[in-house]
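Researcher: Next sequence.
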Amino acid sequence: MAILTEQEFVKVPGFIQRHYRELNQGGWPTFRRKVKNALLRLASVFLMLPALPAFFAMRLLRPWILIRISPLISSRLGHLAANIELYLCERDAGINVPARRHVDLCYFAYTPLANVQLANMLRRHLRIGPAWLLGAVYKLNRVFPGGSIHEVGNNTQHDRDVHNLLERMPPHLGFTPEEELRGKAGLQIIGIPADAEFICLTARDSAYLGAVFPGNFDYHNYRDVDIQNYVLAVEALAERGYYVVRMGAVVKAPIKSSHPKVIDYATNGMRTEFMDIYLGARCLFCISCGTGFDAIPLMFRRPIAYVNMLPVGYFFTFLKDTVGIFKKHWLVSERRWLSLREIFSRGVGFCMSSTGYEIQGVNVIENTPEEIRSLVIEMLERLKGTWQPWPDDDVLQRRFWEIYPIDARDSSQNRPLHGKIRARHGAQFLRDNLEWLV
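Model: Next structure:
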């Protein structure tokens, strides 16, 4: 970059001076991002012009056919999968569906796409149009009065199955015969023999968001986990004859296990977007802490074992064959664990930012390797029909759900968070922590 003399610098316009200082201070990425955003805003204005005829046509046709438009949260895997599967379920159940003739049009509102394979599968079930056109029509519709009727609504913006539709309806997405052959071949390539049962493991850390999206996502750090705390659990599953596949697109560290049936698919160079979807759809169950990938097994009706789940109030209670445990809450000022009731009374039961826990003086502590192992073995034995409950297990479950706020609502949009309770809390944790239910 050319260096301006002091005499040259004072002659240039003020906005150039500001950006020049940014560049000299190592701010080229910031400057480039600002230019890109300015060009995108300018382009959006020009795109409004060809969108005007489409907008007026949509409004004029309303007496005969209602056209609704929905932007899809396409840059995040969880939203792209779960939100749209629930939209399809609600559509089939007649929920949030106009009683008149209508057409729903969708567009991928964000780039990059979280998963191209999933997007292609969704195109088989949705009318997906060009983002440059439908996005402009959507924005115009929000400017002019009377536009809310042309929006699909919360179906595509919410991942809570409050109507318990997932257990009543089969998956909407499926693989073509060619894709099925490709998936079976992919399993063998990564080391899973034909007809062998395998379990997916997804353990959130901050590496993915930091690598893919610019910006500060530290507020999500309360959800992070250490993959090494899962080694005891996955090796226990492997010793029982099951393959365990550690998922992830970008992760901080490989899992430290030498067991031949523990496959670190996230770091071994074999990962593909197609196999991400196929593995999630065909696993025996998924171990998750409540992060984006687990929406794939969810939409294909595969069971999920949650460990280190947070916030406690956002547990996926509506999923059949679900068991879970939460991170523990340490009250720093009194040097003790919070009980379940105190977690909610002290305002951290629905807390969705690291700062929120800090303000309340609470440290969230990961589950121990032994707690994780107990939970995943419980899940396995329940699925295989070999689970042996203790005499007091049902009493402890009832006590847990009597305290848990099953009637809670989303504070931002006043939507229910839970439907009929289908999940169970991990049995061994309740046995070992009776004081948690005081």
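Model: The chain has two domains: 40-157, 186-437. Residues 326 and 373 are 14 Å apart (CA to CA).
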